[in-house]
Design brief:
The protein has about 220 residues and is an alpha+beta fold. The chain has five helices and ten strands; from the N terminus they run E-E-E-H-H-E-E-H-E-E-E-H-H-E-E. Strands 2, 4, 5, 6, 7, 8, 9 and 10 form an eight-stranded mixed sheet that branches. Strands 1-3 form a two-stranded antiparallel sheet. Helix 3 runs parallel beside helix 5.
């Protein structure tokens, strides 16, 4: 009998996850470490289970998640097939400082219709907690943390920030695109292979209880 597996969120095809959180019902006799080992023995090589633990029966990772954080990786250097398996290759120089400034326009609670697919009868309002753009050598990372995301939201944010980095879009135009609530740059999205769900924080902060970081970057 198949049992449902609940996740903290879904990702587009081709997107990676270093920090997904799932929940499932197990009626067997193995303890958590033994169950983790048994699961990893059956899973395909591109999937691994870490940190198995018991939770209350009513636990659902999507409802319990306080925030999610995605990382998009750009290889801003010469052609590198190995690096570009998990990163977007961009040959022209990127103005990372300008990208960082433009990203701050997205922080806060906004209608993100311009940056994601809107599902009928669901609000397009999301709260972005942080946008960080950093360079280390030829690697540029774009981290976006929010309470939740619209479908394709991070990849569309990245596409716009890359335009800023190339000098073909300004911070002001990013703000205008957000306010317009129509698909920014005609709905352009960065490729899926550079994106990874990096972290899911479980817990609530409104009552003073410290959130538990159940996952970390691989």
């Amino acid at each position: 009998m198949r049992r449902p597996v609940d996740g903290a969120g879904r990702t587009d095809a081709g997107v990676h996850a270093a920090g997904q959180v799932i929940a499932f019902t197990y009626a067997g006799r193995l303890d958590a470490p033994a169950l983790e080992s048994a699961l990893n023995g059956q899973l395909p090589p591109d999937i691994a289970v870490r940190g198995v633990r018991r939770v209350p029966r009513e636990f659902h990772p999507r409802h319990a998640a306080r925030y999610r954080e995605y990382r998009y990786t750009v290889w801003n250097g010469p052609r590198s097939p190995l690096r570009e398996r998990h990163a977007l290759g961009v040959r022209v120089p990127l103005d990372v400082a300008a990208m960082e400034r433009a990203g701050q326009a997205l922080i806060g609670q906004h209608d993100f219709s311009a940056f994601g697919a809107v599902v009928e009868d669901r609000s397009p309002v999301r709260t972005v907690h942080a946008v960080r753009v950093r360079r280390r050598g030829s690697t540029v990372t774009i981290d976006v943390r929010a309470d939740a995301f619209l479908r394709g939201m991070v990849r569309r944010i990245v596409a716009v920030l890359l335009e800023v980095g190339r000098g073909t879009m300004t911070e002001r135009q990013v703000r205008e695109a957000l306010a317009a609530r129509t698909p920014a740059r005609n709905g352009a999205m960065a490729p899926a292979n550079g994106l990874s769900l990096r972290r899911v924080a479980i817990g609530r902060s409104s009552n003073g209880t410290r959130a538990t970081e159940t996952t970390r970057e691989a």
